[in-house]
Every structure is written in structure tokens, then in C-alpha cells.
Batch of 2 targets.
Target 1
Amino acid sequence: MGIHSNATSSSNGIPARSVYLDHAATTAVHPDVVAAMVPYFTASYGNPSSVHAWGRAAHQGMENARRQVAAVLRCRPREIVFTSGGTESDNLALKGAMWAYRRGLNPRKDPSVGPGHLIISAIEHHAILHSAEDLESHGFEVTVLPVDRFGVVNLEDVRAAIRPDTVLVSIMYANNEIGTIQPVKEIAEIAHEAGAYFHTDAVQAGAYLDLNADAIGADLLSLSAHKFYGPKGVGVLYMRHETAVLPQQHGGSQESRRRASTENVPGIVGLGAALSRVHANREAESEYVVGLRDRLIRGVQERIPGVHLMGHPEQRLHNNAAFCIEGLEAETLLLRLDMRGIGASSGAACASGSTEPSHVLRALGVSRELAEGSLRLTVGLENTPEDIDYTVEVLAGLVAELRAVEPAMQA
């Protein structure tokens, strides 16, 4: 099932194992995706807005990718907007929908009803949280919903938060740190009953969950190619027909005047190829990855005392194993794991360097002390059962060593 070999050798010739377990941060570009992209760096390198043969070839590649994405989302190709990634897609969805309301462009809502209201959850990605903060600075109002100890939004909380001027409800499909999957279909139904749009950040869901926009109930949906074995720097915002979204980037008339800037054609072609590939292989690859994830969770829980599984025990992403380990600091553990050839994370890659505990873990009610021992292990296609066993063995040994050292350092 692997897409790359994990066999390496150390400088002294002794075989060493290299295990990448940070697929929630990014994935390797699949060889088939690389092959699809190469011609658009070389022969078909034209600007897709140009009318000559080079431009037409680039435009054709881009439109083929648009159709590939639309086929997975079961939508019209013109409802697909290509962006620079998940962060831009989230910004465009939230800011675009809210400002369209204020400008009187939303056919469902009269701006005289209120200042414009947005609903999000406490465990959203920072692209959502910071966009919401920016909107608040311009007079929009935001409700941040709590989650339970598994990270799940309560449907009654959504219903209770709805107001006459609620423009948009934005709840992520699956969480990037703890892997919890939200009841997005039911949340969308509540939003639609009130005449509000529903947006979901589906960036982490792209490789494993159903992306049928109608089945989800999404009016707006964000994706990022590098989370499903595509290239970095390219994403998608699905925008249901007649959803009122004001462009947030000004310049040319690209993407049907919804997102100015010359399109990243090689990246877009790679995104289309990557999404088409994971959709075609989703059942088999999901089964494989779930087996690795469960092996990892079981091994960690059996070998390491004082470990807590974060997120929902069942409704979680296929590849996510997130823990909090008592009596440890994640930074030290991650450095030791890296020295043993294991790539892991303490949470969202975009929040690395922060001295504050994860906002996601805080929302779950995890104590600051326990949150300091957070460890996110996310498996992928190139991992093997042997990788998992090696990781469990190394992790158990390191936890025991670090726990033994910590009391001595405090003495």
C-alpha cells in the first residue's frame, strides 16, 4: 500500500527505520500526481487566460481538473473555485459571505435585520477563528459554540444560537488535532431551516470522508490538496450556485470573477488528479489506514500507563491517533522521537512555536498540565504494520525514560 519506501541506513551501516506519522500536517505528493503535473511545468506552461495555443492548453488542463473535483463533490464544475489552499478558502467563505450580506447581496437575508451573525465552534482551525475575529472588528457578531469532552458540537446549541440575522454557520467536518468528525449534515439542516448558509472546513476530510456536497448539505466547502497526496499551495472552495459571496481578492477576472490572480495550473492539475485518485481508492485505502490507526492506539494504550485518547473514540478520522500523556512535555518527547526517526506532532502544524496549550484541548476541558503532554500521530499510505510496532516500542521506552528523569530534575 505504501507510496514511498521507509528503509534508510544510518552512517554506521546499521539499518534504521524512518517513520513519518504527521500526515495531518501534510502528505507526500503521490507519484501519479507528480506525473500529471509535469507537463504543465514544461510543454503546457501558458497563462490559462491567454488565447493562444499555450494558453488554451493550460486552460484545458485546469478545466479538466475542475471537472475532476466536481465529480467527487457531485456538483457543477462552475461551483468550484480554485484558491491557494485551505486557509484562503476558509477566509473567502467566511468574509465573502458576511460582507455579501452587509452589501445587500444575500437573497435570503435583509441586512436591516441585524449586523450580521456568524456561528463557529471552539475547535475550528485558526483560519476560521482568526477570520471570525477580523469580522468582529468590523462590527459583525460571532457565536463560538462549545464542544463536549470528545470534541462534538451539540445540535441543540446550534439551534439555540440561531438568530434572524445569522448569515453563516461554519463547523469543520473533522478536526485537525483530535480527529473528531462532526454531524455536519444535521448542522446544515438547522442552518438551512433558518435561511442561513452552511460552510464546512473539510481540509482534513478530503482523503477519507464522503465529499458529496448535497449529502453534507454544504453551501460552501474548503479543501487543500496537500492533505490528500497533492501539492502544497492549492485548494478549493466549493460555492453552491447562487450562494452570495463577495470576492476578497481584487485584480483580474479569473475564476468567474470570484478569485483574482493567475491560476496555479500545475498545482490545480495536481489537485484534480490527487482528489480523483483518493476518491477512486477511498474504500481500500481507508480500510488499510484504519487498521494501522487501531493498531497504534491499541499498542500505545497497552504499553504506556497514564495515556488518554483525545477525540471521539469511534467518530474519528481514519488516520488520527491523538493522545495526552501524563507527566510529560511534548516538545522533549517530539525531539527524542525525531532522533529515533519518527516524525510526529503535538497538534496543528500552523500553531507550532506557541507556548500556550492547544485551544482544541482547552475546549475539551483538558487541564493545562495534561495538555502539555499532547501527541498527535497520524498515519498514511506509506506506513506499514512494522512501522507502527516500532513506533509503539520506541514511544513506550522514551516515556519511561522521560518520566524517570523528570522527578530527578525537580528534586
Target 2
Amino acid sequence: MKRPFSSFGDLEVFFSSMASSGIRPGLERIDLLLKSLGRPEDRFPAVHIVGTNGKGSTAAFTESIFRASGLRTALYTSPHLESPAERLQIDGKTLSLADWSEAAFRVEGALSASDALREDPPSFFEVVTAAAFLLCAEKGVDVAVVEAGLGGRLDATNMLGRVVLSLIASISIDHSEFLGNTLEAIASEKFAVMRPTVPAWFSGSPPRLIPLFFETARKIGAIPHVASLENKLSRISLSDEGVRFTLSVYGKDVPFSPALAGAYQIENAALAVSGVLSLKDRFPALSVESIRQGISRARWPGRFEILRKNPPLILDGGHNTDGIRRLVETVRTLYGDRKLALVFAAMKDKDYRAGLSLLRDIGSGLFCTAVPGHARAASPQALSEAALAAGWERKGVKEFDDPCEALEEAEKTGEGVLCCGSLYLVGYLRERLVRENRREE
């Protein structure tokens, strides 16, 4: 056997070297690759999670519930913040470089043995997904919680062979070049992952998509539920310690205390709880107490993550208009009329102009920057021009090529800092902030 890679960075380069470039929706390549690997996607039950915003948090809540119930779990998510190792966790822990290396070499062997795959290589996401499914199968997980990458119907994760539950988080406009220009078109791509006779829960956000959800479920033969219609939420509160709410479980009011602070996490946590309750017969170890513990123990870095309370230092990866709208609502709920210094970056293909307009309501100043090494990143100059067009005052908008310098200048205001606009920005800064905190300790 070949020797393991020396770092996860090298592993990422290796995956890239095997793959075709760009985003390429479609299931033909991943289907052929998984067939060559012996159909690992058929060897474990899975919860499949799609949506525009909140699907990662919902996945984290769901996996944590299963783990708190004593089940052996896998959690597959994307993109990663700091290391490719984050994309797959088994029982809440990242796998070793040796495990990933072995899976990568097996994927390479399957690609090399196929004329069709050599001529039309899978995308990076497809290659990594195949390796992750292989690892889930070989680690013998009781259940895998799998977040879709983009869309649903043509996403590589839709190859899962034993889906026992479909969860559909909030849907909004994003990736229009691949999914369509209307909410209904985008929702159709995501609702299509439902499976015959399998429970499917939709968050119900936005409400206008509920009829389409029921219609699609009827055509597929899925068992549809809408969390916003069926859940009885009460005693809702929000603080920098997290959110609190009460949800009716088995006819009994049960208090939940997620540590995740965003107001939108109530919707995500309630969706996870409702969906898991559908699986009580399949997984008898689930209990009210294990579900409560799972919700309270779930962690999901970079989503309204409060690294410091006073003055606040917050990281949030919301990168589309709906995500930023929910971010603004959370800041307003927590901090009232207080305004924060905003360190902002965005990808060129996102509607950052609309986001910048929304952020005026909570920003005392805007420190525009770009994530090094990302060709898709909008330039600080383009962001500042968009900010001025969105109504920001010239004196409050600054440009920085280095995100760390932007953060340093924002900190000097003493008002508190919110870093937002891009998960890539959050990952870049978080890695450095966590490293600095460790040095100080």
C-alpha cells in the first residue's frame, strides 16, 4: 500500500488532481465511480439533508442526537472551514490522515481502471463524496447524516442507497446558474431527493413553498411533514449563551437549550428533533433525554459563533441574501440598537450588493477584504464600490487586501466586530484566531 499523505493539504491537492474542475451537476460520473468501489452507499442507513440555509446546522443537530443516543454515527458536510478533515466525522471525531489516504488511493484506483472516468473525470466534490461513502461503509456506522453539497436532485449525495429520512431546511435564492432563477425551481431540485415511503420533513420556510412540497411528496410517494405546521414551539428566548425553546414531544412540553446562538437555530433544531422522532421505531435507543442532550451538545463552528462576548467578536458564514437577513435579525435581537464593526468578504458569484444593503442596519463601519488564494473572491475595491452604491457613507468604508489587517483595524474601534459574508472568510480568520487563543492560554 502507498504511504499516507503527510498533511491534509496534500490530500486535498491529490483529490483535486484526480478531479475535473468546477461544479458539474449530474449523477452519471459518481454512479460509475461508486459502482467501481462496490456500492459503499448501499451499506449504511442515512439521513439526507438539503436546503439553502441551515442544512449544515440541521445536520450537526441530527448527528448529535444520534450520538447522544449511543449510536455509531457519521457526519458528512461541506465545505470545510479550516481543514478537509472536517468534512467527515465518525462518532464526532475527524478521521486519521491514514484512513483518508487509503480511501483516496482506492478512489484513484477505480478512476484509473475506467476508460469512461478517465475521459470524463468526476468533480472534486464527487471524488471526496465517494471516498467519504467508502469510509462510512468500512467504519460500520449505524447511521450517516449527510448534507447535500449543491441542490439535491443532481447532487452526488443523492446517490445514497438507504435513505431513512429526508430533511429539508430553509430554501432561498442561491446558485441560480445551476438550480434556476425562482424559488419554485430551486425548491423542485431540493424536494426531488425525497424517497418513496420515507418520512420527509420540510422546515416550512418560506411558507409559499409548502404546497409544492406536498405535491412533490405525493408524486414521489414520500411521507410528508412540515415542521412549521406540526411543531408547537413556545417559551422562545435568545441570548449570547444560545437559544432556548420548548417543543411538544410525544404530547409533552420538553425544554431545549441549543448552545448555538443564532435565532435561526430554533428552526434548525426543531426540524432535526421532528425528523428524528419519525425514526423512533427504527432506532429504539432514541429517547426524550438523549434528544435533549444531543441538541444541547451540538456544535457548528462559524455560524453566529461568538468567540468573545465583550466587546463581541462574532463569526458568521451567511453568504446569501436570506442568510444575511437572518444574521441581521439575530444581531438586532441580541444587541438592540448597538452597531458593530463589520469585516466583510464575498465571492463574486454571490449577491453581495443586497447583503451589504441589509448590513447597513447593524454596521458602524465596513472593512472590506478578500480571502487570499480564492479566485472567486470579489476584490475589496468591488465590495467598497457596492457598499457605497448600497448607501454606506464613504468615511465608514475601508479596503484591506489582508483579512487579518482588516480585523485588526476593526478591533481598534472597540465597538465589537462581526466577520461575515463568506464561509471562506470565516474559516480563514477562525483558524488564526483559535491559534492565537491557544498561544495566550
